[in-house]
Each structure stands twice: as C-alpha cells, then as structure tokens.
C-alpha cells in the first residue's frame, strides 16, 4: 500500500471518530440488536480498519485496529453491496461450516454497507456476539441503513468543510503573497519614478519647442499619476501587512490651507472640471495633516472620476476645536445599492464598468479615517448625487 493510501485510511478513521454522534449510534446498535460488539469499519480491497468501536465483550479491537480483510465477512458485503445477517452461525445452512464465525468466535452477526453521498462504497456498520440473537428483522436492517446514511452525510459535510478550509487558507496565502509583492513593487518603483519626474521638471525649465513642451508635460503628468498609484500600493501594503495606516499626529491649527491646496492641485490636473470649495469654522485639530489631505484628495479624485462631467464637485469643510467634518459631493447617477457595501474594500470601484486606477483610493481613505478614530460614510441617490463624509470628533453632519 502506498503512503497516500495509508494517509487516506488514517484520514477516514479520524473523520468517522470525529463525528460526535458515532458513539451513540454504536451504543444504540448494540442495544437494539442485542449484539454486544459493534463497529464502523473502513473496508477496501486490501484492508479492514476499525474507525469506531463499542465493545462490551472485550473483543480486542480498538479504533485504528486492523483485521485481515480476507478473513472477514465484510469483504462479502464490499463485493456484493448486500447486508450479511446471521442469527446463529452454528445452525445457519450457509455459515455453519464457514471459517469466519469460528475464527472470531461469534454466533450472531450483521453487517450493512455504508455508501457515501456520491455512491461510492465506504465500509460497513457491523455487530456481532458470541451468543445467538434474532437480528434478521426488517426494523433492524432499516435502522442500520439509516445510520449508514447519517454517517455518510456527516462524512460528506466534513469533506466539504475541509475543502472550504483549504480554499480559504489558499486564498489567504495568495493574498499575503500578493500584498508582499505589491509592497516590494511599490518600493522599487519609487526611485525611477522620482527620477522621471525630476527630469521632466528640469526639462520644462529650459527652452523647448511647443511640441517638445507638450510631450514633456505629458511625461510629467504620467509620472505624477504613476507616483500616486505607487503611493496607493504602498499604503495598501502597510495597511494590510502592518496592521493599519500609520499616522504622525500633531495639533494642526491651519488645516484648511492644506485642504485648499489639495483642491487647487486637483483643479490643475483636471482643468476641465469645476471644484467648489467652502469652509467654515476654525480651531485646532489633532490629526495627521498629510493623511487628511490624502483622504480628501482620494475622495475628490473619486468624485471627478465618477460624477457627471458637466457638473461641479462640491467640497465642504466645517471645523471647530477638536472636530472636523469634510463632505465631498458629486452629481450624477446613484451608486447601486448592491455596490455600496463593497466600496471601501480593496480593488473596489464606485462606478460600474470603470477600469481607471487600482480601486484602492476609497479603501485607503477609509483606513485613514479609521486610523484617526473617525468615520467615512457614503450616501447616494439620483436626486442629490453621491456624498462621502469624513467625521472626526462628535460634530454632526451638515
């Protein structure tokens, strides 16, 4: 027998012994039949292995114990798929001269096959006793068949659970490898991208023909976009592998100026889009200035991407000491209700069919909000469009 066959038998024994109802099943079998030794046996072409045992007569077989399958009547059940029932072997026309009752010292015996849910033969429920007993009763055979079906269902459930667990483990391992790859990739791309951006800036300071200037400006814009993607990749990897987005907290008194700067940058990148910025209130807020600016940048970029192109994006900021409210609104079709629960997951996108970016912007914005102890929420309908709201402190939404 190969090692894999041996492992399979051990797995089958463990699977049956792991079914909590098996001891009760075997105890009921013995009580109903009057046969004081009962067993669930895994039976193959070459092996007989006890998976679970109920023994009141010191028969001498423990779970995992084996018999020479050729000396058992289980081999007959295996080959014929028909139960074997003996009330008194010494008076049975077929078994009175059979070697098996003599070898194992029994008079009464019953064995019913167990078929797995896919129809494959697994083994038998067996019971025997040195004394004769009236076991050829329809109710007994019916009970044993039902128990066999119950065991088969339990084994099938265990197999499906094991498959599910293996798939989950494989998915987790794949996810970890992917995130480690993303972290390495993002780190390695930073330096060459920085060189491209610096080179483009230097070229633009010089004297260039109009066509050359446009080409270099496209290079600079592409470099900035790629740098943004790399930053998202690195933030994603930190959040997934490092337990969350890291913050450098400080008391910030002039957060509004940083947020206005974010909007101005996005307006320069998207000259055809209108972004309306409004702010009210003031006060010191303990936060990571750069991360809050990044959160706003991600929300506005998302609004520009998925909002109606001819309609403005509105950014509203309200603050008071220790409290901050940022709302970003775009007009256009509502986000489908089925999509909203997935918006803040990695690789998700707010718009149907959109393929721009990595789908990490909203996830990272959500992680920044969580790291601050704040919330990031969304509401969307066809009348008002879509509004993402970041709340820090207990200031109510407005």
Describe the 3D structure.
By secondary structure, the chain is α+β, with helices and mostly antiparallel strands. The protein has three domains: 3-136, Beta-Lactamase, CATH 3.30.450.40; 168-241, Helix Hairpins (Orthogonal Bundle), CATH 1.10.287.130; 250-392, 2-Layer Sandwich (Heat Shock Protein 90). The protein contains nine helices and 13 strands. The protein has helices at 3-17, 22-33, 74-80, 99-104, 138-205, 210-241, 255-269, 289-306, 361-371; strands at residues 37-43, 48-55, 66-67, 84-86, 108-115, 121-129, 250-252, 275-281, 285-287, 313-320, 323-330, 375-381, 385-392. The strands form three sheets. The protein has a six-stranded antiparallel beta sheet. It has a five-stranded mixed beta sheet with strand order 8-10-11-13-12. Helix 2 (22-33) runs antiparallel to helix 5 (138-205). The protein is elongated, with a radius of gyration of 36 Å. The termini are far apart. The model has no long low-confidence stretch (mean pLDDT 85).
Question: Summed up, what is this model?
Answer:
The protein folds into three domains: 134 residues, GAF domain (Beta-Lactamase, 2-Layer Sandwich), CATH 3.30.450.40; 74 residues, Signal transduction histidine kinase, dimerisation/phosphotransfer (DHp) domain (Helix Hairpins), CATH 1.10.287.130; 143 residues, Histidine kinase-like ATPase, C-terminal domain (Heat Shock Protein 90). It contains nine helices and 13 strands.
